[in-house]
NADP-dependent glyceraldehyde-3-phosphate dehydrogenase
Amino acid sequence: NGELLSWQGDLSSVFSPVCVRNGEQPEPVLLGQTPLLDAQAALQALDAAVSAYDLGRGPWPTMPVLERIQHVETFLELMQQKRDDVIRLLMWEIGKPYKDAAKEFDRTSDYIRDTIDALKQQDRDASHFVIEQGTLGKIRRVPVGVALCMGPFNYPLNETFTTLIPALIMGNTVIFKPAKYGVLLIRPLLQAFRDSFPPGVINVIYGRGRETVGVLMESGKVDLFAFIGTNKGASDLKKMHPKPHRLRAVLGLDAKNPAIVMADADMKRTVSECVAGALSFNGQRCTALKILFVHRSRVDEFVQQFVSAVEALPIGMPWQEGVAITPLPEPGKTDFLQQLVDDACQQGARICNQSGGEHCATLFRPAVLYPVTAAMRVYDEEQFGPVIPIVPFDDIQQAIDYVIHSNFGQQLSLFGQNPQQLGELVDRFSNQVGRININSQCQRGPDSFPFNGRKDSAEGTLSVIDALRQFSTPTVVAAKYQ
Ligand code: G3H
């Protein structure tokens, strides 16, 4: 991306969600600027990726696997040197608390290392022949083509790299558009990209969706679309591809993961998992618990303990020790959350915690809403923020119906102690969601576990091993020997 250094066109300003008081009004801090590419510049990046791939004949897709791995190892080494810069930007750009920002960086390094190890193992396995029914076969995995990788603002490094790295290491060439918020933190890594990969193999683009990724999709030259974000974003872009049947999509999308708390749940553990599950990084995780169904016989106890735990969460700036609730990076987010809270309150829910829902500039105090009913927006709509609806139930069927009729199907959590009941629910839900968590919050990790979802929540599966498959395609060489 050397050419971007000499970019003469429009620039876009990047503001921090962290505000400073300037007179009466809190104002966001200006962090920097990024190029606002036009369609022509985006197409140049595409041409670079297309030529480097060269219909599968380029040096990168044809490079021996172990050699390609060395490039990724070099990148990992150079990336390590930028650890502090990236962590600082994660705090400033998206308001991620220091501890979580450091975890995001280290998890990404581990992910790259594990990917390298898994591919080395896969390469060893691929040297074996398969013998079946008189046929001698050898299966090799080849790249898919030109990949467009786009990540979300909440994990702008980690989730993006869970597609970017497998795409590269499997021999695809890549166009990478960083998340809208969490864009500057890629900057310290640009030199590492340049020093680790041949020209054209990875191309970073910035700018408005329509003029950049929209144009790339319309060109029909994108073979693989790896996108973590909203359903709308993914489907709008997919529709632009002139031959959607030739586009492989790996998508991580919206979710509304429920927790179901049974009458026999261990309350202390349940509350602690539900608080972490609903409010880690302000609830801005696709895997966050976004609605809590609690058996009526335990709901008062649950609400009381949950509220105490929420009221104890420290609110502040990302660099403050132990902080839990921090500024929200998406403009207009506090208004949206306020609307969800107002709607629920107008229809009979109350805010149970002290100062819940109060907000100033980009800080929003978590709002615990109870009792929530199906008539309220927050029952079905994804909040992706610190608003927690609690629904009492008398009959477990209400929670089962919720899962079955939901448009989403990423994960759910079950809290209870009766193995038979848990087992029956696991059987009921196995074809409804990608993961069922027993007595623990929803989450993606460990990264060796398949991460996917049903219905509108995902397409394809990610994990260290699954991603290697997702970003490549098997070719069989077969010979009859009888
Ligand atoms: O935002 C969606 C992420 O995949 C959540 O990942 O469960 O590790 O926080 P996590």
Notes: Residues 263 and 298 are 6 Å apart (CA to CA). The chain has a mean pLDDT of 95. Residues 154-155, 159, 285-287, 443-445 surround glyceraldehyde-3-phosphate (CB under 6 Å). The longest strand covers residues 11-22.
